[in-house]
Model the fold of this input.
Amino acid sequence: MISTHGYVAASPPLGAPDTGGQVVFVLELSRKLAQLGHKVDIWTRRFEGQPEIEAVDENVNIVRVPCGGSEFISKEHLYKSIPEWVENAHRLLLRHGCSYYFINSHYWDAGLAGMSLASVLNIPHVHTPHSLGSWKQRQMVDAAPEEKEKLEKQFNFSTRRKNEQCIFETSDLVIATTPPQSDLIVKDYSILRTKIRMIPPGYDDNRFFPVSEPTRQTIRHDLGYSGLVVTSIGRLARNKGFDLLVRAFALVASRLPEARLRLAVGMQSSDPGDANLLKELEGLVAEHGLQERVVISASLPDEQMADYYRAADVFVLSSRYEPFGMTAVEALACGTPTVVTTRGGLYRALDFGVHAIYTDTEDIEEFGIAILQALKYQRLRTRLHQQGSQRVRALFTWSGIAQQLVRAVEDRMALDVSEDELPAEKGGLTPQFVGEI
Done:
């Protein structure tokens, strides 16, 4: 695995800059591959005095390679230092005698690294983009056309799209995480559909599951919850749409006096140029007179996440754009009635009013009414509680996702390489994996 940006660690500081769903994705997928009998190394960037090697478990290690100095570098600008990272990584590979059956890179910065290393090592390169520059650019420019030049400078869309094109064209396999993303890779980048496999992210079903109502009420009591509680969680970034959620909640609050909103979003923005986002949110709360009804808190420790979901009456994924929406999947898995943005891919896997409610979060009135419906009607919440958790358990457990990835890589490798041509012993994924081709 190559995932170069953010704080990749065995116990990552979720909510830190560029450290969220993708880091969880890589760690959980690696753990499940290990449980299937494989050995996985997660290659990332070394900075801020982090150790070079960190064990995740017996068959999963994190390997950190320096580049670009010792300070944090945001994912929008890390690509400038990737050639240095590749050179240092190759030296480390040679020094330790590492070899692998394939590379799976994550996001376009790591895609550049994976493309180079796979070429040098002459092994297959599987790329998982997580999000697409073309799609993110359209969503952001459509929302604020007057800021087109500012957004280009902030997010380097042109550079990103050119590099994504090269990564997709040279990869042996591209893993899309939603059906719309698969369609956009074909449409925006002219990549053959036969080169793309759709495999969604997963969730840990050993941590995220429904509990009985008495247990849920105990959790609510311990957290100090009362009335009808709406929650959301995520990085403090503009694309997460927390400002839209505050505006929509103002409509809810005018009709349901007992409704409360709790946001666990961290205290510092993870996006360049959004340093004042927390102040903006607090200003919106004050503007709508919601100071006594909205609580904005720091990001939660990982061990508290499941209970945070369970305690809520409604969980909201409010993003302006969201390739998937891991927090919504985890909330659904915990049996929490969930409102999901249509500006992303997850809602396509859910039936409206059965598994979840979905809405255009840019339409504030529609957004507010969607939350209001979920709060007002107990029978609806009961159905969402039951059906939502069953739906995600059927589609999104990490064990199933790991098995899908193994099969996809086997199928792709079988097209190009016969079993007799493969080496008998290598590190990384074990020989048993290759023997199944």
In short: Residues 417-437 have pLDDT under 50 and may be disordered. Residues 213-395 form a domain with the Rossmann fold fold (CATH 3.40.50.2000).
